[in-house]
Write a structure and sequence with these properties.
alpha+beta; BolA; 3 helices; about 25% strand; GMP Synthetase, Chain A, domain 3
């Protein structure tokens, strides 16, 4: 899968204000900003993103995905 394909899958499965993806075709690193993360711990946020990828995480289409997840407020604080 390409970075754009993964980005589109995530964006179609949840409302995101910002998504960046980098990787080598098997190992991916994502930064995702979504209001859906409000009040959630990191594990719940990651599970939410994994859910958007569905079986692709189990069939090795996406071998590894590391991510940083932020709420819009957390993301704005990062920029300062």
């Amino acid at each position: 899968m390409t970075a754009e394909e993964i980005r589109k899958l995530i964006a179609s499965g949840m409302a995101c204000e910002h998504i960046t993806l980098e990787g080598d075709g098997r190992h991916w690193y994502a930064t995702i900003v979504s209001a859906e993360f409000e009040g959630q711990r990191a594990i719940a946020r990651h599970q939410r993103v994994y859910a958007t990828l569905g079986a692709r995480m189990h069939t090795d289409e996406v071998h590894a995905l590391s991510m940083k997840t932020f709420t819009p407020a957390e993301w704005a604080a990062q920029a300062q």
